[in-house]
Automatic annotation (TrEMBL):
GO terms for molecular function: DNA binding. This is HTH tetR-type domain-containing protein. Residues 29-48 bind DNA. It comes from Anaerostipes rhamnosivorans. It comes from the Bacteria. Residues 6-66 form the HTH tetR-type domain. It holds the Pfam family TetR_N.
Length: 195
């Protein structure tokens, strides 16, 4: 695919992501995406055949981005605590920003039977995220920055806290201090205290 094609696909995903966050997955149509991107139907269908295809690629990109972020920082030898603090800060901001949350759209997308044919695609995303976090946690343990923790349990605490707040914030007001309190306690599980 040429640069122009990649740029167009990027624009489609960027604009569609905003619509999915606002309206959920089920309410967004290809016509909506044509309107928000300024593409003709033929132009859009040149790149994607359905909203499902667009949404799937958006979620795959998000997972890949986190994995690459963790790995590139570890490859540079950055302190594990700095990497953790960066991601927890981003998670806090995302948890507070319910307007850009894809949690409801993710729920809707994966609740449609044809989107879960074969292996459970959401579970595959969960396992990919777990693998990224496991590498980061082990990196921090090996460097003596993190406590010896139950990696699967702490990962579940992170992921389900994060997604839970994002989901509930779409349905009801959530005090903006909630994410900070939660992530502060999660951080305490990780970081070794001197003395």
């Amino acid at each position: 695919m040429n640069k122009r094609g990649k740029a167009t696909r990027g624009l489609i995903k960027e604009k569609a992501c905003l619509m999915f966050a606002e309206k959920g997955f089920k309410e967004v149509t290809m016509k909506d995406i044509c309107e928000i991107t300024g593409l003709s139907r033929g132009g859009l269908y040149c790149h994607y055949s359905s909203t499902s295809e667009i949404f799937k690629e958006i979620t795959e990109d998000m997972m890949s981005c986190q994995d690459e972020e963790f790995q590139s920082k570890m490859d540079l030898g950055l302190p594990a605590v700095d990497i953790l603090d960066d991601v927890l800060r981003r998670y806090k901001n995302e948890m507070i920003d319910s307007g850009h949350s894809l949690s409801m759209a993710i729920y809707e997308y994966y609740s449609i039977k044809e989107n879960t044919i074969g292996e459970n695609a959401l579970y595959e995303q969960y396992l990919l995220s777990y693998a990224s976090w496991k590498r980061l946690i082990q990196y921090g343990i090996d460097r003596g920055e993190f406590n010896q923790i139950d990696i699967p349990a702490v990962f579940d605490l992170i992921i389900f806290s994060y997604q839970g707040v994002r989901m509930y914030s779409k349905l009801m007001p959530v005090d903006q201090e909630v994410p900070g309190r939660m992530l502060k306690e999660i951080r305490k599980l990780f970081v070794r205290q001197e003395g």
